[in-house]
Amino acid sequence: MSFFDELGQYLSSANNREQIVDTLAEHCYLALLPLVLGIVLAILVGWLGNTWPRARGVILVVSNLVYTVPSLALFVVIPSLIGTKMLDSINVVVALTLYTAALLVRPVLDALDAVPPAVIASATAMGYRPARRFLTVELPLAVPVLAAGVRVASVSNISLVSVGALIGVGGLGVLFTDGFQREYFSPIVVGIALTLVLALVVDLLLVLLRRVLTPWDRAAAPVKEEVPA
Amino acid sequence: MIGEIIDWFTNSANWQGEDGVPTRVLQHLGYVLLSLVIATVIAVPIGLYVGHTGRGGVLLVGSGNVIRALPTLGLVTFLFLLFTDSDIAAIIGLVVLAIPPILAGTYAGLQAVDRSVVDAAEGMGMRGGQRLWQIEVPIALPIVLGGVRNAVLQLVATAAVAAYVGLGGLGRYLLDGLAILDYGEVAAGAILTALLAIVLDLVLATVQRALVPRGVRLAEAGAKKEVSA
Amino acid sequence: MGIEFRGITKKYPDGTVAVDDLNLTIEDGTITVLVGPSGCGKTTSLRMINRMVEPTSGSILLEGEDIRDSDAALLRRGIGYVIQHAGLFPHRTVLSNIATVPLLSGWDKNKAKKRAAELLEVVGLPAEVGKRYPAQLSGGQQQRVGVARALAADSPVLLMDEPFSAVDPVVREGLQDELLRLQSQLGKTIVFVTHDIDEAVRLGDRVAVLRVGGKLAQYGTPAEVLRQPVDDFVAGFVGKDRGYRGLSFLAADDVLVEDVPTVRVGSKPEGSDGWRLAVNDAGEPRGWLAPGSVVDGELVEGELLAGGSLYQQGTPIRGALDAALSSPASLGVVVDADGKAIGVVTARQVLDVIENHPEGVAR
Ligand SMILES: Nc1ncnc2c1ncn2[C@@H]1O[C@H](COP(=O)(O)OP(=O)(O)OP(=O)(O)O)[C@@H](O)[C@H]1O
Ligand SMILES: [Mg+2]
């Protein structure tokens, strides 16, 4: 039986199709919620490091350390750290939020550093208080640099979610363990293809979002992309 | 639960034989180093060629991003079904995943070399090879090695995931422990994997410090000072 | 012989014509400045000399030989090249930066290092700078190292692309003086690119003004370009005060130097109703004593009005006019080569001389 016959057979089953749709939906949730939470967390931490330079060193060391911990290891220790059940999807969300934040803290700090001091000074001179200045002046100006990091984080999240299948919560990853156990190519290939498509679609949406958020940047030269991690 | 972990680590049975810590650590290290060497041999020359000539940069970045989006677990299970050999499947999977960060680091490193420096080298009569090895590579080294460090982190993490298809290494503790709900073993596996990643990263950081020319470090420090000033 | 551009045209792949049918002969042992607005093809022209850019048509002769006949890398080792920001290698010490070309040409290490140390001195840097890295130098020092590195090949030809434009005006003037001093000793054939007409006039034996589109607008001595711009473009480019700058090329031999009452610092002068020039024991001017000012006891320098610029006899007339205009007494102090005051000139007298000068100014 050729691979395509196998694939056709696999996709013709309503059960399988339902499983694909369900796992895809779960995958989106497991990848994108942490992306949003991680961005917020990274901005908070970045703000801290920016207003309180002494915290910077600690922040960078901790975020490097978090990033160093392998995904599977993080997935399995989180339940004991926060007291959730082993099969709870919260574990994956928390772990990926931490990764996203760890990945983005440095770009956030770099981006905030790169805001011209003259801009900050004139905003202060016009009477902005620090919090408002941060949200309406510094943060928007940091978006171009931040955007590159967010794109890397989104791709990495989307591909990492499937590792969660090993602890029972893995979105499309379940298709991989399924295919492996049944020695069946189709679910694995479908899972890989959908992961790639999802990553591509989200990436395009992020590019669009960045354009919408930074209308002033379009006239200027494009920002050089960060070296992806 | 701390108790369980301590029990596991103090149980001498866990330190001996085929399933003992020394063997598992060495196995893990072996997979990481083997795939790192293969990936480096493939990725560095390509990165140098593209970075030096400037030809194919878009293709390189694009394909790197696609590979980055490949789900580890899907790739490894797919390769296992294809080759029905866990070692071959895992090593190929690891190599594939280690290539993009090394490629991106090498390429980005050469891209980041100040054009006027390369220009001056050419103007003084350095030939292509002399320019590449005497000027571009030493200056690009910090970013190239940054890519290698990223690759190593991903390899340690991915080698643990690859244990799913029957590979040895530290992933065994995580997966076997999960299967029998032996929490101590799972946590021990997580801790060991994380430690291995951190230690390897530290070793590479030291290598990086030793290899990067002093003048390049000074120039970097100077640039940072200018930004923060 | 020098360097000869023969019908050189450069069209980049995207269709930009950077240089259009350029014919130019650069004399041996002179500084020739290519000047013009941004994007007019200066860099392109310069880089065709060491084959970093290949012309679309035409040929360039160096010492009578077509440069296409020599190997590009070998050709470059025989031509010094200095660029903006110097392009120093950040991972090599200053000395090994300077030693680059000798080492490439196969000199042994010691000889190359020795040569590099000599050059460090030639460009006016202290020896201890040699062990430092470029990141540890100021912009002006980096630029000097860039010049030293280009001199290391001991090549007769030096190409300089806006070498001084990234440093502040004071440092730039110092570097320009240094280059002129070096040139008076070394007598190289220097092709110098700048978009600053003042720099061009200051450094150049000959100035080539290029217009956008890569056409040669005018080629001549600085005086010719300032006094007789061939068209509105050149006139506009050399600027509004070209008439005044043209005075840099006019001798002031005919200006009458008048005597002026002097007082010696440290003496006890009596009152007077005219301006008096204060001089020290060596006869050097120190400042002015205003009419009617009364001095209690000995005259000290703190009581003097600061003087204007000094005009050294024998230099161009621009200095004489400036001395007169900048003096509080409206009297420009004239000094001899030793700096001793020998008299004064007025602006009126200087202008009379200019108006009656046979060469005229900016007509
Ligand atoms: N590699 C290239 N490809 C395409 N066009 C180029 C290239 N290099 C230069 N040009 C174009 O050729 C023209 C001349 O460029 P060139 O660099 O020689 O100018 P320049 O006189 O040195 O200007 P500047 O004072 O700004 O340095 C410009 O219009 C420029 O955009
Ligand atoms: Mg130029």
UniProtKB/TrEMBL annotation, chain A:
GO-annotated biological processes: glycine betaine transport; transmembrane transport
Q: Which residues form the ABC transmembrane type-1 domain?
A: 20-206
Quote the cellular component terms of the Gene Ontology held in the record.
Answer: plasma membrane
Sequence intervals crossing the membrane: 29-49, 55-78, 90-108, 152-176, 188-209
Q: Does the keyword Disulfide bond apply?
A: no
Q: How does it sit in the membrane?
A: Multi-pass membrane protein
What InterPro entries does this protein's entry cite?
ABC_transp_perm/SBD, MetI-like, MetI-like_sf
Its domain of life reads Bacteria
Instruction: Tell me where it resides.
Output: Cell membrane; Membrane
| UniProt keyword terms in alphabetical order | Membrane, Transmembrane, Transmembrane helix, Transport
Is Ligase one of the keywords UniProt gives this record? Answer: no
**Gene3D superfamilies, per database record:** MetI-like
Major place of residence? membrane
Q: Which family does it belong to?
A: Belongs to the binding-protein-dependent transport system permease family.
Q: What is this protein called?
A: ABC transporter permease subunit
Q: Which organism is it from?
A: Prauserella cavernicola
From TrEMBL, chain B:
* Record GO biological process: glycine betaine transport; transmembrane transport
Top-level taxon: Bacteria
Task: Please provide one cellular component term from the Gene Ontology annotations of this protein.
Answer: plasma membrane
List the subcellular locations: Cell membrane; Membrane
**Gene3D superfamilies, per database record:** MetI-like
Mind listing the UniProt keywords for this protein, alphabetically?
Membrane, Transmembrane, Transmembrane helix, Transport
Q: Which residues cross the membrane?
A: 29-51, 58-82, 88-110, 151-174, 186-207
Protein's name according to its UniProt entry: ABC transporter permease subunit
The record lists the organism as Prauserella cavernicola
Automatic annotation (TrEMBL), chain C:
One GO MF annotation is: ATP binding
Name the domain of life: Bacteria
Write down the EC number. 7.6.2.9
- Name the PROSITE patterns for this protein: ABC_TRANSPORTER_1, ABC_TRANSPORTER_2
Keyword ATP-binding on entry:
yes
Stored SMART domains = AAA
What keywords does the record list, in alphabetical order?
ATP-binding, Nucleotide-binding, Transport
Give the first-level EC class, as a single word.
Answer: translocase
Known InterPro entries for this protein? Answer: AAA+_ATPase, ABC_transporter-like_ATP-bd, ABC_transporter-like_CS, P-loop_NTPase
Q: Which Gene3D superfamilies match?
A: P-loop containing nucleotide triphosphate hydrolases
Whether Transport counts among this entry's keywords is: yes
Locate the ABC transporter domain: which residues? Answer: 3-238
PANTHER family per the record? OSMOPROTECTANT IMPORT ATP-BINDING PROTEIN OSMV
Q: Which family does it belong to?
A: Belongs to the ABC transporter superfamily.
- Kindly provide the name given to this protein in its UniProt entry: ABC-type quaternary amine transporter
